[in-house]
Design goal:
Layout (H helix, E strand, L loop, with lengths): L16 H11 L8 E2 L6 E4 L18 E9 L5 E2 L2 E2 H14 L4 E12 L4 H18 L3 E9 L7 E11 L13 E4 L5 H10 L14 H7 L3 E5 L5 H13 L2 E5 L7 H10 L13 E4 L4 H11 L4 E7 L3 E5 L5 E3 L13
Parallel strand pairs: 6-7, 11-14
Antiparallel strand pairs: 1-2, 2-3, 3-8, 4-5, 6-8, 9-12, 9-13, 10-12, 11-13, 14-15
């Protein structure tokens, strides 16, 4: 009898435990480079080995001698949603992956794969969104590729963006220290709420939180010990990653959780854990305790909803102290998560 072949499951790309397993399997096939660092963070780092690097973008320090490189693919359903579209999320997502590493983005590579029959008007809207984010952020599109495939080979449109940035100091995922404070830059999960509400025709005023984070992160970068944007897998995935890589325990307080009432309501309505809801314009970070108040004051100038949500303690894992006095473990998301959301 022929042995049944294993297949890739949908949740293997959703940002949870099965995603981590699939990525680990893929990585085993690649040679390890000694010149590139942080290859399991949001971007890989290459030390340019010089003290003065000229850059084409005004505002990038000439002392920035670490190059950060990242790439991401976007398949979003629906492609237009409250607060954005697939073009906006592709640009913001890649810029943010550089920003959470402490880098100032200097260029984006853009690849479009378009299904035959896709409306030209929709394509122009998407391209206009890409151009708007590029202009507002000062990050140019510097190279790219466009392909058109037969009808039915893909679902409408897929966008891949790659980005490069320069940094003086890298912020990794493994730098959280015991005693640090955990900060969220605003309410989380609202990108998920916007897309799910559109899919299920659920009435809500919430728009996607999709936006670039460079200015926010650069304003507090010197205070951060670890930083991550909670995209696929949401806050549960990224805090577990920080805790595991930093070899610490992260403890959250239920009364300071960064979720709006509408986010909690939709989570309960659909039976989806709010901790796994992705954001596309927020970050969570660990901050030196003496600098936490200062960092929070700065972040609240960008978003009044920024708040301290927990602390870093000895141990391992991520836990929630409930309002009833109990403790709940927050695991890496498992099982069916939200597909095609970023």
């Amino acid at each position: 009898m022929e042995r049944e072949k294993k297949t890739i499951e949908l949740e293997s790309g959703a940002g949870g435990e099965k995603s981590n397993s699939l990525i680990s399997q893929i990585r085993k096939n690649f040679a390890v480079s000694r010149k590139w660092k942080n290859m399991q963070d949001d971007g890989a780092v290459f030390d340019l080995g010089m003290n003065n690097v000229e850059t084409p973008r005004q505002g990038v320090s000439t002392a920035s001698n670490k190059l950060v490189f990242t790439t991401d693919a976007f398949i979003v359903d629906p492609i237009f949603f409250p607060g954005g579209d697939i073009g906006k999320i592709a640009m913001c997502g890649t810029i943010n992956d550089l920003s959470v590493m402490g880098a100032k983005p200097i260029g984006i590579g853009l690849s479009l794969v378009i299904e035959e029959g896709f409306p030209e008007e929709d394509l122009q809207k998407i391209v206009a969104s890409i151009g708007k984010v590029s202009a507002e952020s000062g990050v140019p599109i510097v190279t790219g590729d466009t392909k058109v495939t037969e009808r039915g080979k893909i679902d409408k449109i897929e966008i891949t963006t790659s980005g490069v940035g320069l940094a003086k100091k890298i912020i990794g995922n493994s730098g959280a220290k015991v005693g640090d404070v955990v900060i969220a830059s605003g309410n989380l999960g609202e990108h998920a709420v916007a897309l799910l509400a559109k899919r299920f025709n659920y009435q809500t005023k919430i728009k996607s939180d999709c936006q670039t984070l460079t200015r926010e992160i650069q304003s507090v970068a010197k205070y951060l010990t670890a930083c991550k944007d909670p995209t696929r897998g949401g806050m549960a995935a990224v805090l577990n990653e920080i805790a595991e890589k930093s070899k610490v325990k992260i403890v959250l307080a239920e009364n300071t959780l960064p979720f709006s009432k509408e986010t909690v309501a939709l989570s309960e309505l659909l039976g989806i854990d709010k901790f796994s809801f992705p954001s596309e314009g927020r970050f969570v970070a660990t901050v030196q305790p003496k600098q936490a108040k200062k960092a929070l004051q700065i972040l609240q100038k960008f978003n009044a909803q920024a708040k301290i949500i927990g602390s870093v303690e000895p141990g391992k894992g991520v836990f929630l102290n409930t309002s009833l006095g109990g403790t709940k473990k927050i695991d890496v998301p498992r099982g069916k998560l939200i597909p095609r959301i970023c």
